[in-house]
Specification:
The protein is mainly α and 162 residues long. The chain has a domain of 54 residues. 49% of the residues lie in helices and 10% in strands. It has a two-stranded parallel sheet. Strands 3-4 form a two-stranded antiparallel sheet. Helix 2 runs antiparallel to helix 3. The protein is globular. The chain starts with a helix and ends with a helix. GO terms for molecular function: oxidoreductase activity.
Length: 162
């Protein structure tokens, strides 16, 4: 039996959030798409996920992304409409660029060479980056983000918000 056969979409999403390896992230995401009968590269993926996932973490992330998408620079989502963007590297910069391109209307593909991730790859963040990540719902996936003097994030956590 697969994870799709044993769990609700909300349960699969929670497993996705807690994944520890690239393989788990991609397999769990594919299971989530399978459970909702939607293709992972569907143009309506975001709206389909938003419609069917009701767990609090998913709702929080969707609200943050919707709020970002309503900003003036993304209003029409047409700047990159009809364009395909290939992001090479699923590190923090690549994943943040993927979010940006998607908000601007591009069809985005991200490729990554590694098949594992580590929570020990910690990146120091500038204050404006911290603000940006908070606005995208990072605390949903990395609860300790910006608690106390913690002004860094693991690369794994960044992967989760994308």
């Amino acid at each position: 039996m697969t994870i799709t056969e044993l769990s609700t979409p909300d349960d699969i999403f929670k497993t996705f959030v807690q994944a520890d390896t690239w393989r788990e992230v991609t397999q769990t995401f594919q299971s989530l798409c399978d459970s909702l009968h939607v293709l992972a590269d569907s143009k309506n993926l975001f709206s389909h996920l938003k419609e069917h996932l009701k767990c609090s973490d998913a709702v929080t992330v969707f609200k943050a992304l919707d709020k970002r998408a309503q900003q003036r620079e993304y209003e029409k989502g047409e700047i990159c409409a009809g364009k395909k963007t290939l992001i090479i590297g699923a590190g923090p910069c690549g994943l943040r660029m993927a979010i940006e391109c998607a908000l601007l209307g591009s069809e985005v593909s991200v490729v990554e060479m590694r098949d594992y991730i580590t929570r020990n790859n910690v990146l120091h963040l500038w204050p404006f980056v911290i603000h940006d990540l908070k606005a995208l719902g990072t605390k949903v996936f990395y609860k300790r983000f910006c608690t106390g003097g913690l002004d860094h994030i693991s690369q794994y956590s960044y992967l989760s918000i994308n």
